[in-house]
Amino acid sequence: MKTYSxxxxxxxxxxxxxxxxxxxxxxWRLWAQHHGLNVTDILAIAHGRRSIETMRLVAPDVATDRExxxxxxxxxxxxxxxxxVRGAAALLAALPPEQWAIVTSGPLVLARARLQAVGLPLPAxxxxxxxxxxxxPHPEGYMKAAHQLGVAPEDCLVFEDAPSxxxxxxxxxxxxxxxxxxxxxxxxxxxxxxxxMLANIRMTVISASSKxxxxxxxxxxLDE
Length: 224
Known about the structure:
This protein has helices at about 20-35, 40-45, 50-60, 65-75, 90-95, 110-120, 140-150, 165-170; strands at about 1-5, 10, 20, 85, 100-105, 125, 155-160, 175-180, 195, 200-210, 215-220. It is an alpha/beta fold. The strands form three sheets. A six-stranded parallel sheet has the order 6-5-2-7-8-9, covered by helices on one side. A three-stranded antiparallel sheet has the order 1-11-10, with no helix packed on it.
């Protein structure tokens, strides 16, 4: 069992807190069929990226903001397939609300819909794909979340499930814990550490180390 301490935890949304794989794949399958594209090629790179960036990679001639918005809205309007990842609710409930954030490649409307659908709380800091100029694997989203929380990058711990998100967290000079909900553990050699599921985490919140910020030390034990 490995132990990490930090001042803030930054979560990806899809695949880390919410299991939306069925919803994501259903939406991309419909889009691929509409444009005569191979959905397998799309799904190989779609996880962890903004919709518009995936579209630009697989079909730049039809990649428009309107196409991306329509795909995202389709998912936001039907969250019936989404479920909370095992261990997510307990972990979020144990965290001080000012010491965690979500950094997602999706838009705000989709993030809110998914969190509400599975009964998880909306964080005080939520950085979406609409809030950044550069999506994952660029570190902008994670850097922005750390700044809004008032925590140095080196004091942040990131939870991610996709290679592009892991690369983003590492590029932000943060430690990244990979969660094997979307890809097998063998895919995560670049991550700081890797676990099978959030339920494998035990966390302790230590008393405030700074009266000025009120930030407490978070100590997590990971059963790898």
